[in-house]
What we know:
This protein is of the alpha/beta class.
Amino acid sequence: MDIDFVITWVDMNDPKWQDSFAKSSGKIDNTKNEVSVARFRDYGFLKYWFRGVEKFAPWVRKIHFVTCGQQPEWMNVSHPKLQLVSHEDYMPKQFLPCFNSNVIEAYMHRITDLTEHFVYFNDDFFITNHITPGRFFTGNLPNDIAAFRMNFGFSLWNKCLRNNIRIINKRFNKKEVMERDHGKWFTEAYGKRARLTRLLKSYNKFVTLRTPHNAQPYTKTTFEEVWDYAGKELTEMSHHQFRSPKDYTLELFKTWQICRGNFAPYNTYNNTKMFPLVFKSAKAIKAVREQSYLLVCLNDSEYIMNFEKTMQGLQAAFESILPEKSSFES
Length: 330
């Protein structure tokens, strides 16, 4: 089975991007448009993402590198496994330029030559140990965890997750889904992560599902089904140049996939870890260096103490496990 990777990236130091951003927003202002420096800045680790793919996941068919038309100076753009994808290549022109990842991601299934089975990465998700296709797919089914989580937060992110669930509850009957796929929802593989699911078993509505922040497997068919059902809502969202509390997120597609039964139960927490660098920079550096997980997310924040020291520590950790240039570097 062919599997592609999709990764999104932006270079906020690019003068053209800065000019486009300034014309659209005026400035980076987290209170105004949910945009912070941490959301866009690049600390030079992208090459380790490609090194990790080449060393630990050489089986990938193709990498679709999605930007607003940018490319790193060091990138070997003629690599046979690399396809440079600009937003204008797959997104409707009337919604560009776009600085809203929720919109950029919702159209991914339209990328030319994308395989039916693909894995989506943000540029802070890294492969740090040998990984097989079986980590992402079992047979033709994406691996995922069907487990509920609490969502009483007032952040923009939590509001968007609740928007997702409203669509899910309009389309799916929870009782029918759980009766049909009982073994997938109540497997022992989830361990303590399934406690809330068992507690809410008799509740007649879906609530927000757990959303491990890391590389996520999808099928293009899932995206097509969601667009067929909720195209009006997703098109309205597409007018949002920046994140909005009225947005829907990729978790809509992930949850749809689960409710359709189009997944294999898998506790992704077993070999995947997100490290908020503002709190756990030392643990993140240790995990990369010791290759403690197959996949790690290095979640940036504008409030990181000793930012330069943290970045130097992470670079040294990556160099210790991925010292050789990949063929994706010119």
